[in-house]
Amino acid sequence: MESDNHLPLQWSKSSIRALTRADILVADGFALPEVAVVIEIFHKANALIATLPDRHPLYEVALLSASGGRIVSSSSVVVWTQRFDCHRGKDDKRLLFIAGGVGVRDASKDERMIDWLCRQYSSSEMVQPIAEGRCLLDAAALSSKCLSDSNGDGSLHEIYGSLTPTSGAGLVALRIVEQDLGASTVKLISDSLSTHQAPSFSELFETSVDRPPSDNIKVAVRWMNANLTCPISIDAVAEAAAMSERNFLRRFKKEIGMTPSDYLLHARLSLCCRMLGESRLPVDKIARHCGFSDGGPLSKLFRKYLSTTPTAYRDARKAVPLRVSSS
User: Fold this and answer.
1) N or C: lower Cβ tally within 10 Å for the chain?
2) Contact 202/32 with Cβ under 8 angstroms?
3) C-alpha triplet 188, 193, 199: angle, nearest 5°
4) How much is the pLDDT for 108?
5) To 10 degrees, the CA torsion angle through 214, 218, 219, 224?
6) Which of 147, 173, 195 is the endpoint of a domain?
7) Do residues 147 and 240 share a domain?
8) d(Cα 266, Cα 236) in Å, to the nearest integer?
9) What is the C-alpha to C-alpha distance for residues 129 and 168, in angstroms, rounded to an integer?
10) In sequence order, which ranges of 10-110 are alpha helices (DSSP H)?
């Protein structure tokens, strides 16, 4: 049975709980997509609740960092954060996500941060690390803290994993919404997220690697990834890997499953895709940041591999808004 507004009956009950505060602790170099999906899931849940009369948002998200202010993600997108020890409501349900990034190792040496994390841990209903965020929990001698699952309906990954553009933290956020608002709400959100997914270049370069690459090739891959914004020559990569150019080309193709040039194109186009979805920078600026001369060559490559343009790709992604409420 559903209410008159054709929304799940569970939403119209007076039992919808008080505000849930979801804090996301970030450090420089954090991976934005995983964080952005968590924000978007709670944003969509609030938007659905808002369609009911006399209902207020259920979730409030805040980005926190060690010092507050400007934090730069791994894809060079800037977000603004509050200090981790900012005041939060005492009576609200609290959730804590800990994003990774290069800066998290410095944070794990900050005694103030560790003390704060221990206090938050005891008062939070859930603590979920993302990637390197686990290092911070390890430094505090803590483990992830899961919500109790009283639904008994199986793994959320099995049910919604194929629909959502993320795993891990995104699926945890869906579980939270499911427990608060019901499975039908999660289905609506999952369907909405899946329609916003754009094609990925990851499937354009099939590899057939039988074993992990050697140390020299790993060095070459890391060097290319660190220099995507600069002109890169094969002899320079071979030199970085301490190999002759001929041996490097042969070994790279055998161990990675594609030529160095194809890998470099793959990496640059993947970076462009992330920046188009995560930022509002002009296409020309993104192209130059990713090692292309301007937006012209990038547009040709998008049409060749994805049958679309960078602008159309961005529109399809509907970049997740980064403005989140603060208190």
Assistant:
1) N
2) no
3) 145
4) 83
5) 140
6) 195
7) no
8) 18
9) 9
10) 32-49, 104-107
Q: Which two tokens stand for residue 313?
A: 């790709």
User: Residue 132: pLDDT above 90?
Assistant: no
The per-residue pLDDT for 284 is 93
Residue closest to 271 by CA, chosen among 204, 225, 327: 225
pLDDT digits (tens, 9 = 90+) for 140-165: 999 888 765 544 444 555 555 554 44
Q: Return all residues near 220 (Cβ < 8 A) that are at least 6 apart.
A: 237, 238, 240, 241, 243, 248, 252, 260
* C-alpha separations of 27 from 86, 110, 227 in Å: 16, 13, 22
The answer for residues whose C-beta is within 8 angstroms of residue 54's C-beta and 6 or more apart is none
Instruction: Write down the pTM of the prediction.
Output: 0.57
pLDDT band at 2 (very low <50, low <70, confident <90, very high): very low
| Both tokens assigned to 39 | 């924000």
- Tell me which residue range forms the domain holding 303: 201-317
Report how far residue 308's alpha carbon sits from residue 306's, in angstroms, rounded to the nearest whole number.
Answer: 5
Cα–Cα dist 267/291, whole Å:
10
Which pLDDT band holds residue 263 (cuts at 50, 70, 90)?
A: confident
Q: What gap in Å lies between CA 223 and CA 217, rounded to an integer?
A: 10
CATH of the domain at 165: 3.40.50.880
